[in-house]
Amino acid sequence: MTDAARGMETTSIPDALPRERLLPTEECPQGVLKERPEDFLVEELPLYEPCGEGEHLYLGIQKRHMSHGELLRLLSRHFAVTESAIGAAGMKDRIAITRQTVSVHLPGRAAEGPVGEIDLGTDRATVLWTAWHRNKLRRGHLLGNRFVVRIRRIDPLSAPRIWRGLQRLEREGCPNYFGPQRFGYRGNTHRLGALVLREDWDGVLAELLGARGSSFPEHQREGRVAFDEGRFDDAEAAWGRNDHAERIALRKFARNGDARRAVLSTGDHTRSFWVSALQSAVFNHLLDERLRSGTLASLESGDVAFLHDREAAFVVGDEEPAELAARVEAREISPAGPLWGRKLLEAGGGVAVREIAALERFGLDREIVEASREAPDGARRPYRLFPANVELDAGTDEEGPYVRVAFDLPKGAFATVVMRELIDEQPAEPRPAAHADGRS
User: Fold this and answer.
1) Which of 8, 69, 440 is closest to 213 using CA atoms?
2) Tens digits of residue pLDDT in 337-362
3) pTM of the prediction?
4) Domain 48-139 CATH assignment equals 3.30.2350.20
5) Are 129 and 49 spatial neighbours (Cβ–Cβ below 8 Å)?
6) Of the N and C termini of the chain, which has fewer Cβ atoms inside 10 Å?
7) Distance separating alpha carbons of residues 432 and 435, to the nearest angstrom
């Protein structure tokens, strides 16, 4: 085990957000995203249609200003099932209006007859259709997503500049970063993921509930200090209804003092999200390096190449450099970064050295990842994404001037990282207090 992987404080684990960009900043007009949920529309592009029979009820759901975790809890209560019985192809943005398919495992219910209209008890989530299918909907069971984004507080005359940038991204590819929503309102979900993989359960609780780790909104200070001092009743009183994982872990720990059981009580979905955030942070760090070195669209021996049409990967060896370069230019293949896990297709040579060094920057090494019971299998993700079916228009509506862009993205890609290349994003107007801390 390396020194980098021993006993790191979470504050020594680097920030996870993207640092570099492909398009010149000076060419980007200022604008605001997600000023209203209606300005950010997402529609899932399904991989297949439900067959009409089976034990899994597929639901077409439209939600507004609702996080993925809140949707899971809503469906869990309505159908009286655990969250593990619910499947989804991907997590959708919170500050948005989104349409997606989810599945609920309801064995024996199909024989009871038509499902009928489903009222989830909130105007922020509507069931548009239902159908039965034989298997659970799992992460990645989608083609991609269609995004329609209105940029606010922008001069509509800047639309040609945005259009030129969007066309360049369509032609050359956009850096395939993980967006800020992957890292939570405190920007620390990757740190929680590192602690989970190291099975440092006390560390997870300290970072999740205490005052000595990553930064947090000031209104949480009293409750966090109370946790650090062992005043668990006072700590619990400080958490709000949206602090789901915090309240569950605190209650469990207050009852039995077992940190591991307290962390496990937050649920498989929550821990999986934290670990995926750690994978995402390491990937973003390596993508920053590719942009700084000018190798976003080039391959060297030892690199892992991603075949876009087959979603497969191979390690570059003795292939002819000119042939590889032609395939990269044709958008057939791209260099791919690691989403670290137990069965990761590993790079070779200097590429492998850089990837392992990036993992160690985040407090881990291969030994820890391979030994952890919380580690996923691992995968490769292309460093480039290609927006498709791009559109743009501009004008003025009842909310003021706007520029509207629309595009399709492959599964796992973030529209916010495409928009990050096109505009110099400015802060949105303050939102109601219930959502002011930006938690998702």
Assistant:
1) 8
2) 999 999 999 999 999 999 999 999 99
3) 0.91
4) yes
5) no
6) N
7) 6
Which pLDDT belongs to residue 10? Answer: 77
Q: Give 53's contacts (C-beta < 8 A, 6+ positions apart).
A: 110, 132, 133, 134
Q: Is 233 a catalytic residue?
A: no
Q: What sign results for the dihedral spanned by CA atoms 220, 223, 226, 228?
A: negative
Q: How many CB atoms lie within 10 A of CB 48?
A: 12
Residue 237: which of 246, 212, 192, 203 has the closest Cα?
Answer: 246
pLDDT at 22 over 90: yes
Note whether 268 and 274 are within 8 A (CB): no
pLDDT for 437 equals: 33
Question: Percent of the chain, pLDDT > 90?
Answer: 88
Q: Measure the CA–CA gap between 262 and 205, rounded to whole angstroms.
A: 8
Of 15, 39, 93, 424, the active-site residue reads 93
Domain ranges of the chain: 32-38+144-176+386-435, 48-139, 191-268
Cβ 378 vs Cβ 340: under 8 Å = yes
Distance from C-alpha of 167 to C-alpha of 165, rounded to nearest angstrom: 5
Measure the N-to-C terminal CA separation of the chain; round to a whole number of Å: 35
Handedness of CA 362, 366, 372, 373 (dihedral sign): positive
Among 300, 245, 284, 250, CA closest to 268? 245
Q: Which helix (H) or strand (E) holds 277?
A: helix 268-293
Three-state DSSP class for 407?
strand
Q: Which residues fall within 8 angstroms of residue 349, CB to CB, at 6 or more apart?
A: 300, 301, 302
The helix (H) or strand (E) run that includes residue 304 is strand 304-307
